[in-house]
Amino acid sequence: MKKRKEKKKIAAKVCLTVLAVFTAALFLTPIVLTVTNSFMAASEISSNYGAVFSTTATGGKTYISDTVNLKFIPDMVSFSQYGTVLFKSPDYLLKFWNSIILVVPIVVFQLIVAVLAAYGFTRTRGKLAAIVFFAYIILMMMPYQVTLVPNYLVLQWMKLLDTNWAIWLPGIFSPFSVYLITKYMKRIPVSLLEAARIDGANEWQIFYRICVPICKGIITSCAILVFIDYWNMVEQPLLFFTNTDKYPLSIFLSKINSQEVGLAFAVATVYMIPSLLIFLYGEEQLVEGIAYQGSVKG
Amino acid sequence: MFLAPSLLGVLIFFVLPFVVVIFFSFVDNPISKRFVGLTNYINAIQNSAFRTAVGNTLLFSVIAIPLAVILGMALAFLLDAGIPMKSQLRSCFLTPLMVPIASIVLIFQVLFDYNGVVNVVLQKFGGTQVDWLKSSSGLFVIILMFLWKNLGYNMILFLSAIGNIPGDIIEVAQLDGAGRFQVFWHVKLRYLSPMIMFTTILSMINSFKVFREVYLLIGEYPYGALYMLQHYMNNTFGSADYQKLSTAAIYMSLVMIVILGIMFAVEHHFGKDLEEE
Question: Residue A54 and residue A66: Cα distance in Å, rounded?
Fold first, then answer.
């Protein structure tokens, strides 16, 4: 009797494991396919997927093939597309650079501003501060669609549209990290900060020597979350830039899809690399950051 | 003093312009600035493009959000069931979160194009070709992408919540003769309810962003069923019609504020409920 129950349990566990592995594989499929396909030579791509892209290409090359041939592994591994993307065609590198130049300053400065603000919120406790903080939460929850309109108006008024500042400034002052870091910093016992003050530390030293080191983990988490968010950004450049030369790779990718399919997979892979590297390096922090967001709620 | 930079930035880039937006939504045009009351709001409701956009966004949300929450929770329970390779599997579910949507739209196009892989497979099994991206079935593809991207996030949230369910309460319930189902329904779900609320809200916020997927996959003017609110706003941006834009933005923020209000009310209610026990 007992044995049978054991057996049943094991069977259930095996089923669950199979289910989990299968789902996980499903989740990875689009990524793996993109990467493996990036090693296909342009000619192989067009013979495999010609049917798809000949219908979407408007005025571009038309590939002749009526069947789609999805392949995990290319017939011939080829690096020539990467050569083209990285060395021969400066357009892609330029767009990649655009992405970096738009995202990195936002991550760095949003965090600096946020850590300072979090300290401000931690040290000033009172009704007014609480109300202001609540306003931050509301702002954070607002979908872009709502904040983009006010942003656009200000940027137009400041004549900053079509400059990188149009993306940087609203990004830097976005309340997201302020919220998360403040929630964390408020857990530092006040007695610890008071003790430091009694020992003769001034406000800046308390901030820099005590609060910042304690919050290191959450700051890293925030940096990762902010990076993913902006690396993926599409709406802001689409609205704030009329000059397509300034577009980041994310938007540019959707435009090349139909024209140069052979290269597109390689470009897509190159675009994924920074986020995947960050994921490898900071998965734990990312998970902690997300979990923390849930544990404190609004 | 430490707050100053952030406060200043938020004021300039979010709060003040928002006031301007409210102002614009009540005047006839930005130059003459004549007060017209609710005319803009009524016009927006009567505008068919706006109505389609709202309807589509709602339809998407009604289908996608419960799925995102329920499947996210299911994944969390799956990982929590004591199966091997838990952390590797968790990484797999989380990777889509990191990958930029722009990078994988290509493969989705290969899969769901009229001549794409999915249709080829369908035909092999005797089905008919579906023009996924250019018909109302596009909604299905977008929901799939949305789930693919967001499930990992919800899963992590639920995993941490499951970890926080006090183990002794489950034991007590079991000693009292509660079956597995009863433990799940009366104890676990009860403790997870605040998290269910939270992930629902988060998924809702994320669902407003789904324009990105549609735009990258299909473009600025998708088939009717995929015309989202953001398309309406983007295309209005082009014509610089500020009253229309402002009105739409105000409508959205009102909806958001109502949703947040409900969230806080419910959370307050549940929070009390749990503390009393």
Answer: 10
